[in-house]
Write a structure and sequence with these properties.
By secondary structure, the protein is of the alpha+beta class. It has eleven helices and 22 strands. The strands form five sheets. Strands 1, 4, 5, 6, 7, 8 and 9 form a seven-stranded antiparallel beta sheet that branches. A hairpin with a 4-residue loop joins strand 18 and strand 19. The longest helix is centred in the first third of the chain and has 30 residues. 40% of the residues are buried. InterPro entries: Jacalin-like_lectin_dom (IPR001229), Jacalin-like_lectin_dom_sf (IPR036404).
Length: 563
């Protein structure tokens, strides 16, 4: 009877612990939010806001609760023990990160996140935030991080196993133990709030990334610099000068229904964050300890510990983050190829992409093997074959085609739609529409619209849009993705008198009509198979006096070793 009463009291205590864990899960669900504010080079603040709340049932919430570090999953509780509340430190910092692995350390992303290949892990808010950055091997990050600690609880003594939990003596028992209780237990947890803003600067090559780091240093933005109003001014200055694609994304936990600052108020908000009231404290950090350190389990757990440590080591974490970044770089280059016409002559890039996929499968197989039998010895290579080639850098050649051999070089104003090809490709710019206005013997105006991922569609007018009763406006030639300018033909004397433009889908427009002008000279251009039109340059005023075509062609990427 006495034994039954003890077991009943223990079951009631376990139910109470489960209720406590549920309350803490609700706090976590209410306390984490993310915001994305994409900075456009036009400096028009067109913000894309994303705020979400996600269940974190995969996270351990009670001290001594079991946890599977490889799977990233909260498990049942096997231990009893004592804990105490200790102090924590609130702080604000600025970090400069040149890789996702250093970014993970800056944002305090660790534990199971170091083996974050799907489908073996549930995604926490922090990991979702990390993946939302779409980082590549050449992305650079400026991190503004603030932490507000409410309290930290630490296990001070493990008394032993809970009633009903059997001590594992042999391999099958150890395997069952891990299945129910994980490979470690929650030994400390920190509640409070976090705020961080991450500026992501996307480069297409190692050289571009090195140039960006030099620009960051030139602004006086150094690792560990103090966070204050002057830092915000330095970041704003950098963002105005840089030619890189930039995004700003923010994350906050610990405060219900938070209001995120604008891009001009990041550092001030971060400085104030440790002083704010935590209306919905969240679990912002936790540490685990392997069961091999529990005397009652001890050496029987060593095979599991060896495998766990191998799969969650810093080296493995770095390799996996590099693998994901390399995959992101290759995917981004192939996306650029698709934007400008499905360049298919980069065989090595395709081979390395296949190797990355194979390495992902290889690493996933190690983790799957661990989950099937955590006691079976694992042999993991020191490096992955995907890294043997380095980091790919986008390569292209710019060619300017002269249409008018005897162009009028004195009339009108000079124009150049693509003064910087690097910026053009960085912003994934393309021609989205063309339109002509022409009279009986002249092309008055060429309207060119450019679409970009960084700025709204811009329409540029070359020539005069003023018209008389004799001029006509052509239909607008919409150029959809995977459609390209196929040919330009026309006539000119001291100006363009006739112009015909045709797309790859057969659509065409024309302006002007000078067939009866005996002195007119003809010109013609057809798109080569490995080239594409990206813009125009020339001279224009009341009409078009000179027109040149700015074309580009891709070549296989060049592979660089990481700096």
């Amino acid at each position: 009877m006495h034994v039954f009463a003890c077991r009943e009291r223990e079951r009631e205590r376990e139910r109470e612990r489960e209720r406590e864990r549920e309350r803490e899960r609700e706090q976590i669900q209410a306390g984490c939010h993310m915001n994305a504010d994409f900075i456009h080079r036009s400096k028009e603040q067109q913000a894309k806001m994303t705020t979400f709340v996600q269940s974190n049932s995969s996270m351990p919430v009670a001290l001594l609760q079991g946890y599977n570090m490889v799977e990233g999953k909260a498990m049942n509780t096997a231990l009893t023990g004592d804990a105490e509340l200790v102090g924590g430190t609130s702080f604000v910092k600025c970090d400069i990160c040149s890789s996702t692995s250093t970014l993970m350390r800056s944002l305090n992303i660790g534990e199971s996140l170091s083996v974050s290949l799907p489908p073996l892990i549930s995604l926490s808010e922090k990991l979702q935030f990390l993946l939302s950055l779409s980082a590549t091997s050449t992305t650079t990050f400026i991190v503004i991080y603030a932490r507000h600690i409410k309290g930290q609880e630490v296990v001070t003594n493990v008394r032993g196993l809970m009633p009903g939990v059997k001590r594992p003596f042999h391999r099958d028992q150890v395997r069952k133990f891990v299945e129910y209780y994980g490979d470690s237990y929650l030994s400390s947890k920190t509640t409070g709030g976090e705020y961080y803003a991450v500026y992501s600067y996307y480069s297409d090559s190692v050289t571009q990334q090195m140039e960006l780091r030099a620009a960051i240093n030139a602004e006086g933005i150094l690792q560990g610099i103090g966070v204050d109003a002057s830092l915000q001014l330095k970041i704003n200055s950098l963002n105005k000068k840089t030619r890189r694609r930039i995004s700003l994304q923010q994350f906050m936990s610990g405060i219900a229904n938070p209001g995120f600052p604008t891009s001009d108020g990041i550092t001030q908000f971060a400085c104030n964050f440790p002083k704010m009231e935590l209306t919905s404290p969240a679990l912002i950090d936790w540490q685990t300890t392997g069961y091999e350190h529990v005397p009652v389990i001890g050496t029987f757990f060593v095979p599991v510990a060896d495998n766990r440590n191998l799969l969650t080591s810093f080296d493995m974490s770095t390799s996996l983050s590099k693998l994901q970044a390399l995959k992101g770089t290759i995917d981004e280059i192939k996306r650029v190829y698709r934007i400008y016409g499905e360049y298919n002559e980069d065989d090595k890039l395709d081979r390395v992409k296949d190797q990355v996929d194979a390495d992902e499968i290889l690493v996933t197989s190690y983790k799957a093997s661990y989950l099937e039998d955590p006691t079976r010895p694992l042999k993991v290579p020191l490096t992955l074959p995907s890294f043997d080639n380095g980091i790919p850098s986008l390569q292209y050649v710019i060619d300017v085609i002269t249409l008018m051999e005897e162009a009028n070089s004195n009339e009108g104003e000079q124009f150049d739609d693509v003064p910087d090809a690097e910026v053009y490709f960085q912003q994934r710019t393309r021609i989205s529409s063309l339109q002509l206005r022409g009279g009986p013997h002249v092309v008055n105006c060429l309207f060119v619209s450019y679409a970009s991922e960084e700025i709204p569609i811009q329409t540029i007018e070359h020539g005069s849009h003023d018209h008389d009763s004799n001029s006509q406006l052509s239909p607008k030639l919409e150029i959809l993705p995977n459609c390209f300018v196929e040919s330009l033909t026309g006539l000119y004397d001291k100006r363009i008198t006739k112009l015909n433009i045709q797309l790859s889908n057969g659509d065409r427009i024309n302006g002007g009509n000078a067939d009866d002008m005996a002195q007119a000279i003809s010109f013609s251009w057809s798109k080569p198979s490995n080239s594409f039109l990206i813009g125009f340059r020339g001279r224009a005023g009341k009409c078009i006096y000179d027109l040149q075509l700015i074309c580009a062609s891709f070549s296989p990427v060049i592979w660089f070793r990481s700096p």
